[in-house]
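Exercise 7b. Backbone tokens:
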């Protein structure tokens, strides 16, 4: 691709053999110019390698857990935010709306409370600007211009075009984070960290005399960017795409309503414990993630040494694309790979059934840091919305087009309108 030799892995078997069975050899982050542009040449947790990556990932995971990732406290934050979202939808009085920024606001607020220590009001101008920047970046990554930049970064970096708008958005987000870090510095209490940024600042203070420390200004800005960006755009796009799929499949929506009424009723908020009693809902969410195939090519890996893989010789440093699309649509793993069918995750008794081909978060050493948080958010947001509302499309369901608006780094759904009808 462009000037880089690239190996592409297709099928569940090939991706599993590389990322899981040979995790060490395939565990490094591959070359991707757009990622380099965001991570300032390999800072932060997504774009880094080696010792830097190990330290930042370990620190980020530990800090997120300390702030409740996977625990009751973060569950309460999501439940609270889901109620704010429901109120917003109620205000629409069953009139059709475009849900894009509603989901972005709600999902982003969950990660904001962990990273920045507080949530934003939905009308906050700075917050809205930040979310439109993020949307611009995700869209830019998937556009033809973004893909051209990945292939010819030196040329594309110099010529005008829509991709420059994306670079301005990246700079805008980093500027916002830098400003928040400075604000945190001024009010920091080392004995009482409020959020991820505080914890990072404390670590910077502890390691300030260690030569080559990974805890410095560039580290904090880029790691925060990774958590905030990945924690907003992926889940909110999955929610938006998911409701569009349910508009297209009203029979599935109806079955979810029945399960919610039976297990939770209408008088209390859904909680994460409900998931184990709601196999159909769980299957639908898994199938939504499988079907929309959010990051089709995965994020590139590279091999850490010269190696022989399936009779092929791969030289050290070669960029590897584990084609997640080929795993999520592998006919050996899924009976109807190109159709939306929650039955892919149900056994013949209607119980939830795992499938090894379910890899939307990738796999192996570089599996998504926020997988647990994302799964919790998807369950609680979807369930809370469908407990309170029926979905209605202003256009005929035949007209709803589920193919992506653009497909590159991500599958970006078409814009659409829907009405939330109180149940």
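Sequence design result:
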């Amino acid at each position: 691709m462009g000037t880089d030799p690239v190996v592409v892995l297709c099928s569940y078997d090939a991706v599993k053999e590389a990322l899981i069975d040979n995790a060490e050899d395939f565990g490094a982050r591959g070359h991707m110019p757009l990622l380099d542009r965001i991570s300032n040449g390999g800072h932060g947790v997504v774009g880094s390698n080696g010792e830097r990556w190990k330290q930042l990932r370990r620190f980020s995971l530990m800090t997120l857990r300390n702030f409740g990732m996977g625990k009751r406290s973060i569950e309460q934050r999501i439940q609270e935010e889901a109620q704010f979202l429901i109120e917003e939808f109620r205000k629409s009085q069953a009139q059709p709306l475009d849900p894009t920024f509603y989901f972005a606001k709600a999902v982003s607020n969950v990660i904001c409370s962990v990273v920045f220590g507080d949530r934003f009001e939905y009308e906050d101008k700075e917050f809205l600007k930040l979310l439109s920047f993020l949307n611009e970046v995700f869209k830019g990554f998937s556009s033809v211009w973004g893909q051209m930049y990945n292939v010819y970064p030196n040329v594309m970096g110099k010529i005008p075009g829509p991709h420059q708008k994306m670079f301005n958005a990246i700079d805008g987000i980093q500027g916002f984070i830098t400003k928040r870090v400075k604000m945190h510095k001024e009010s920091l209490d080392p004995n009482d960290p409020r959020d991820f940024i505080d914890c990072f600042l404390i670590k910077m203070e502890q390691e300030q005399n260690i030569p080559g420390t990974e805890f410095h200004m560039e580290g904090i800005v880029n790691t925060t960017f990774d958590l905030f960006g990945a924690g907003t755009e992926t889940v909110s796009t999955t929610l938006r795409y998911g409701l569009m799929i349910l508009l297209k499949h009203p029979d599935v929506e109806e079955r979810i309503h029945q399960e919610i009424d039976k297990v939770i009723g209408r008088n209390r908020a859904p909680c994460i414990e409900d998931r184990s009693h709601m196999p159909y809902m769980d299957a639908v969410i898994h199938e939504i993630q499988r079907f929309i195939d959010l990051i089709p090519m995965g994020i590139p890996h590279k091999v850490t040494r010269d190696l022989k893989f399936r009779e092929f010789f791969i030289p050290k440093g070669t960029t590897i694309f584990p084609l997640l699309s080929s795993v999520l649509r592998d006919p050996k793993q899924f009976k109807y790979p190109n159709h939306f069918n929650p039955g892919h995750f149900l056994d013949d008794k209607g119980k939830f059934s795992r499938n090894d081909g379910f890899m939307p978060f990738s796999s192996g050493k570089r599996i998504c840091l926020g997988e647990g948080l994302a799964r919790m958010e998807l369950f609680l947001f979807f369930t809370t919305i469908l407990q309170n509302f029926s979905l209605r499309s202003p256009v005929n369901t035949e007209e709803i087009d589920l193919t992506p608006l653009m497909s590159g780094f991500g599958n970006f759904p078409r814009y659409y309108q829907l009405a939330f009808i109180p149940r």
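Instructor comment: The chain has a mean pLDDT of 93. The CA atoms of residues 20 and 364 lie 5 Å apart.
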